[in-house]
Amino acid sequence: MALPPSLYQAIEKLTESCNFSDIQKARRDLTQRYHTKQASAFITDDAERLSYLITRMPATYAVGHTVLKQLSKEADKITSLLDLGAGPGTLLWAAKDIFSSIKDVTLIEEDHRLAELGAGLFDDVLKKKQIHHIKSDLRQAAPFAPHTLVTLSYVLGELSSNHQKAVIAAAWEATIEFFVLMEPGTPQGFERIREARTQLIEMGAFIIAPCPHSLACPMAGKDWCHFSERLERTPLHRLIKEAPFAYEDEKYSYVIAAKSPLKHSLSRVIRKPQQGSGHFILDLCTQNGLKRVIISRKNQELYRIARHLEWGDPGPKLDGKNND
Ligand SMILES: C[S@@+](CC[C@H](N)C(=O)[O-])C[C@H]1O[C@@H](n2cnc3c(N)ncnc32)[C@H](O)[C@@H]1O
User: Fold this and answer.
1) Which GO BP terms apply (predicted)?
2) Pocket probe mutation, ligand 1, options 108, 110, 136, max atoms within 8 Å of Cβ
3) Which of 33, 144, 164, 293 has a Cα at 20 to 30 A from 236?
């Protein structure tokens, strides 16, 4: 996955006259701040904002795109988007690619300058949409106006535990159809997703992904539910990240909640499938908890399905039919 060409070209243009060593340093400082979580505001100046556009926006875009794609069959229900903590409008880029049906967009972001830099990157399709930019602190902005799709991407970790609960409650209140939450795929990021999931179920939500049910999460001990998205690094991305490879794997955790029940997968592949000699080992989250299944080549139909399964995919029906 890569950013849309028009977006990365606009980012390159925006940064062409900048001092790259300043942006490299800003990226290192910002990463350090995210790792130590010792800040009231994580992004503090323009060099850090540019480093976010160059090195983090591609990752959150790729994750947002992969997660939202799971709602593509529901596109006719999705006519408006409310993105909370929208940053430069990353989720909007992913959403507009999947839901051409979206007409009204509200982006709430407290860092006005980041929102402004993001809006300067918009292409003609986005410029034609009805986009309301609200510069506000989410902790004070509720109640939010109702929208068919509400998203919170890589924001929860920047809020205190009490504020996470309050923002989720207000976001769910504003959700007409779907509410999507994404976080880094770390144990801490997953714990925030798990707590949000529990809160959403208590508020009446139907969980439609990645979980195959709305029962208690069976993930226990040192395990955490996360997935991985491979994304391309452009030369500029590599330069600013001081990274040798032309790709990176972004780990993420997420949950999609719906206001009404929806037909969805009865299991999920929660680890990279392992291929043995004449069999595949699949780790699945199922309606009956976590299961490891071994699919032998002798079971031709299931084996054929297993060969194409990837980490994060809906799991197969164990009678051989794909259940998505
Ligand atoms: C890691 S960035 C994610 C940006 C964007 N959602 C994305 O996926 O690329 C977190 C964003 O949340 C915003 N944010 C954090 N706390 C906020 C708050 N209390 N009110 C509004 N925005 C907030 C930050 O300013 C930042 O833009």
Assistant:
1) translation
2) 110
3) 33
Q: How many domains does the chain have?
A: 2
> To the nearest whole number, what is the mean pLDDT of the chain?
94
- Do 113 and 182 belong together in one domain? yes
Contact at 8 Å (CB) between 106 and 83?
Answer: yes
Statement to judge: residues 246 and 323 lie in one domain: no
The mean pLDDT value for 91-110 works out to 96
Domain match, 233 and 290 both: no
158 lines ligand 1 (CB under 6 A): yes
Counting ligand 1 atoms within 8 A of each CB, the residue from 155, 160, 192 with the most, and so the one to mutate, is 155
Distance 109 CA to ligand 1 centre (A): 6
My answer on whether 87 and 191 are in the same domain is yes
Which tokens belong to 296?
């032998």
Same domain, 253 and 273: no
pLDDT at 147 over 50: yes
Residue type, 29: D
- What are the tens digits of pLDDT across the range 169-185? 999 999 999 999 999 99
Final residue belonging to a domain, choices 233, 258, 283:
258
Which residue range is the domain that position 270 belongs to? 265-324
95-104: per-residue pLDDT in tens? 999 999 999 9
What atom of ligand 1 comes closest to residue 141's alpha carbon? 20
Residue 83 CA to ligand 1 centre (angstroms): 10
Region class of 113: left (phi > 0), else alpha (psi between -120 and 50), else beta: alpha
Instruction: Annotate 1-46 with DSSP letters as a single string.
Output: ----HHHHHHHHHHHTTS-HHHHHHHHHHHHHHHHHT--SSS--SH
Q: Could you tell me if the CB of 109 is within 6 A of ligand 1? A: yes
* Residue 139 beta carbon below 6 angstroms from any ligand 1 atom: yes
